[in-house]
UniProtKB/TrEMBL annotation:
Residues 34-152 form the Lipocalin/cytosolic fatty-acid binding domain. Keywords: Disulfide bond, Lipoprotein, Signal. Pfam families: Lipocalin_2. Residues 1-17 form the signal peptide. This is Apolipoprotein D. One of its GO terms (cellular component) is cytoplasm. The keyword Cytoplasm does not apply. InterPro entries: Calycin, Invtbrt_color, Lipocln_cytosolic_FA-bd_dom. GO terms for molecular function: pigment binding. Residues 188-213, 286-308 are annotated as: Disordered. One of its GO terms (biological process) is lipid metabolic process.
């Protein structure tokens, strides 16, 4: 008989990684009128029963949520104190069979071949602390587990005193409780967010009007250059520089771009016509000078012949 008890203790210790005890699981009644909706949110593990599997764990936290499908889910996050790797274990909370069992949470985790985990909420104020408890038994041997959960990662002493009062009420020994390392874990609470792109300053109506005017004047200058290159050749004189202020003054008037181009084109044509007239007058004068020179040469030739 003693050998069977020792074997049962060994099996239970290996299976649950907890400290086994003789006897059956105590019948602890969960919290009456437990409200799962108020229990939603993040809870931090402040203290727990010793577990061999959690020796290297730190920054332990649990998040209870309700999905769009109305199902309740739980996400346990544990960070390895040596490697810094965070492990996340998610599961779904099965609905309670009756109102009296609403304080008993039955969780089915998503990892393959994982057994369902059942634990009870012995007491909570929903805002600062919660005491959770579970028990597994094989025959006359059982192993208990308990957690002190808090809303703050590092809770004040008065909050822990409330939780200790619940443990004393249910006669749960604090001998095997160990504190969870929550130091330097605040960076896990606020994940880095992407910086929003900087907004360009909005232009006022005056600035946008000035910009449009500058663009229009630039387009007019380009048109002037093109027309000047097309009309002025090596044999023709370009418009005089004295008329440039007139062109710029006319271009600066608040007219539409096509009208400005037409105005400038007309001015250039007038200048070109004046230059052409001047060229014609010069050519006529040159022809007259050539005729007079030819007449003088012919007269001189005649006089020379008469003298001879």
């Amino acid at each position: 008989m003693f050998a069977k008890v020792v074997l049962a203790l060994s099996l239970l210790a290996c299976a649950s990684a907890q400290i086994p005890n003789l006897g059956f699981c105590p019948e602890y009644v969960p919290m009456a009128n437990f409200d799962l909706k108020r229990f939603m949110g993040v809870w931090y593990e402040s203290e727990r029963y010793f577990q061999l599997s959690e020796v290297v764990s730190r920054c332990v936290m649990t998040n209870y949520t309700r999905g769009a499908d109305g199902k309740y889910r739980v996400s346990n996050q544990v960070t390895n104190r040596f490697t810094g790797i965070k492990r996340i274990l998610e599961g779904e909370i099965k609905p309670a069979a009756s109102k009296a069992e609403e304080g008993k949470l039955l969780v089915r985790y998503t990892i393959p071949l994982a057994p369902e985990t059942k634990y009870s909420v012995l007491e909570t104020d929903y805002d600062s602390y919660a005491v959770l408890w579970s028990c597994q038994g094989i025959g006359p041997v059982h192993a208990q587990n308990a957690w002190v959960m808090t809303r703050q990662r590092i809770p004040p002493g008065e909050v822990l005193q409330k939780a200790y009062g619940v443990l004393d009420k249910y006669k749960i020994s604090k001998t095997f409780f160990v504190k969870t390392d929550q130091a330097d874990c605040a960076y896990l609470d606020t994940p880095a967010t992407e910086k929003p792109p900087k907004k360009k300053p909005e232009q006022t109506s005056e600035e946008s009007g000035d910009a449009r005017s500058a663009v229009a004047l630039g387009a007019v200058d380009d048109e002037v250059n093109l027309l000047g290159k097309a009309d002025v050749s090596e044999d023709k004189a370009a418009p005089s520089t004295s008329d440039i202020p007139k062109i710029i003054a006319e271009a600066a008037k608040p007219l539409a771009i096509p009208e400005r181009i037409l105005k400038i084109a007309e001015a250039i044509k007038e200048e070109s016509a004046d230059a052409g007239d001047k060229m014609i007058i010069v050519e006529v004068k040159e022809e007259k000078a050539a005729d007079s020179a030819q007449d003088e040469r012919s007269e001189r030739a005649q006089e020379t012949e008469k003298t001879a």
